[in-house]
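User: My instructor asked us to take a sequence, write out its structure as tokens, and then describe one feature of it. I'm not sure where to start. Here is the sequence I was given:
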Amino acid sequence: MVRQENLDPTALHWSHFLIAEDAGQTIGIGQIRPSPNCRELGSLVVLESHRKSGVGALLIEALVKDEPGPVFLECLAFREPYYSKFGFRRVPWWETPMPLKLKAGLGGIFGRLFGYQVVTMRWR
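Assistant: Let's start with the prediction itself. The structure tokens for your sequence are:
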């Protein structure tokens, strides 16, 4: 599902994922990706047939519910309003901890080259 949506395919480990199912079918996934200096919400995917039904919201709320500290994410700028509904706020790349700082900086460079904008957001 991550690869089909062209999301970051790094640091994928089943134990980090929360899975949403409907009648035994996986309809959504998401993870909190642990890093040495931070935690990152990532790999959030909901099957197209189940989008706009609240599955993504349930996954996000469940994933951040017990997080003791800040959680970061990177997304395309047009998705910023969606994540803002859950308390995520945009931060400049230089305010993100490593290794996200490097990833955010590269995302900004490639985004400018290919005509899209990547933003970094922080929860809490």
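For the description part of your assignment, you could build on this observation: The chain has one domain: 14-123. Try explaining in your own words what that tells you about the chain.
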